[in-house]
Design goal:
Layout (H helix, E strand, L loop, with lengths): L13 E5 L15 E5 L15 E3 L6 H5 L2 H11 L11 E4 L5 H13 L2 E6 L2 H9 L4 E4 L2
Parallel strand pairs: 4-5, 5-6
Antiparallel strand pairs: 1-2, 2-3
């Protein structure tokens, strides 16, 4: 479309796969490990990137699910963790679009630290889903 200012690089960033080669400084992974994480240009048969951006894939996750997690996890950790909000027990947090990917992860994070959650979602079905997750304060985003 020609609107991005500069070369965005090869497409893809969130990835999951199996380790087929390792650099000499990568100590936390082994050949054959299933991993997930950030891998710039990952829309390819093989990807090469810094080992620090990869972690072992939980055995209960599919590769598809694992490849959807890195940006969601990182966004929530950066926003609500020690970098910005420093969300803690007893704090109140408003989570817009709480039934979406980042919203659901934000709910899990807020519950983990003991914060009180106020959420928005667009439909009654989504409100009910959020109630099933333990969210008590829900309003419409419409």
């Amino acid at each position: 479309l020609g609107v991005y200012p500069g070369d965005p690089g090869p497409p893809g960033s969130d990835a999951a796969g199996t380790v087929v080669a390792l650099g000499s400084n990568v100590k936390h992974l082994r050949l054959g490990d299933d991993v997930f994480g950030f891998l710039p240009g990952c829309l390819a048969t093989y990807g090469i990137g810094p080992g620090v951006f990869l972690a072992p894939k939980p055995i209960t996750w599919s590769f598809e699910n694992a490849s959807a997690m890195p940006t969601i996890f990182t966004t929530v950790e950066l926003a609500l963790g020690d970098n910005y909000a420093k969300l803690a027990r007893g704090d109140r947090v408003l989570i817009h679009a709480a039934a979406g990917g980042i919203g659901l992860m934000a709910i899990q994070y807020a519950q983990l630290v003991g914060a009180e959650i106020y959420a928005t979602a667009g439909s009654e079905a989504k409100h009910e889903y959020l109630r099933q997750l333990g969210v008590r304060h829900i309003t419409s985003s419409r």
